[in-house]
């Protein structure tokens, strides 16, 4: 039986969610001089790039972006970032991912920054599926979507010429 792909958010709706999240980030960090967006490879990083673009237009603070790579299948934290961790000390870090499902990816992403002093650590997801196995939640959410465990949510952001979209499969 072929799987059915249902469009949940189109390109314009995704951009509206990104704009709203950017304003929430601005409000949460109004007194800051610098904010670091830590995008989880690969769609989290693409989402972070889009947030950076909006934040540059509406905010006064410097926005740095870093790429966080995680081994999501490991039973322990295995990660790497493209910036020395020391450069993140005493900064506001905003961890960005596309979908929050079990919470493992966000939990591992948060773990990357736990051994350094920070001003604040927040998280952003475009879609929160609310199927958490880990006690984590996102601070900024584009859309909370109730799904059954067998369903899959896929986020497409400028991939292989395919139009942006969030799909339920």
Number of domains: 1
Q: N- to C-terminal separation? A: 13 Å
CATH topology (fold) name: Rossmann fold
- Number of strand elements: 9
- Report the C-alpha radius of gyration, rounded: 16 Å
**Which structural class fits the helix and strand makeup?**
alpha/beta
Mean pLDDT: 92
Identify the CATH architecture. Answer: 3-Layer(aba) Sandwich
Q: What string gives the helices and strands in order? A: EHEHEEEHEEEE
Task: Show unreliable segments.
Answer: none
Main beta-sheet strand count, sense and barrel state: 6 strands, mixed
Helix content: 10-25%
Strand order across the largest sheet = 4-3-2-5-6-7
Share of β-strand residues: 25-35%
CATH class: Alpha Beta
Figure out the total of helices.
Answer: 3
Q: What is the 3D form? A: globular
Q: How would you describe this structure to a colleague?
A:
The chain has 169 residues and is an alpha/beta fold. It is 25% helix and 33% strand. It has helices at residues 11-28, 43-58, 104-111; strands spanning 6-10, 34-40, 62-70, 79-81, 92-100, 120-128, 140-144, 153-156, 165-168. It is globular. The two termini are 13 Å apart.
In short:
It contains three helices and nine strands; from the N terminus they run βαβαβββαββββ. The chain is of the alpha/beta class and 169 residues long.
Describe this protein with a few key phrases:
169 residues; alpha/beta; Rossmann fold; 6-stranded mixed β-sheet; 3-stranded antiparallel β-sheet; 3 helices; 9 strands; globular
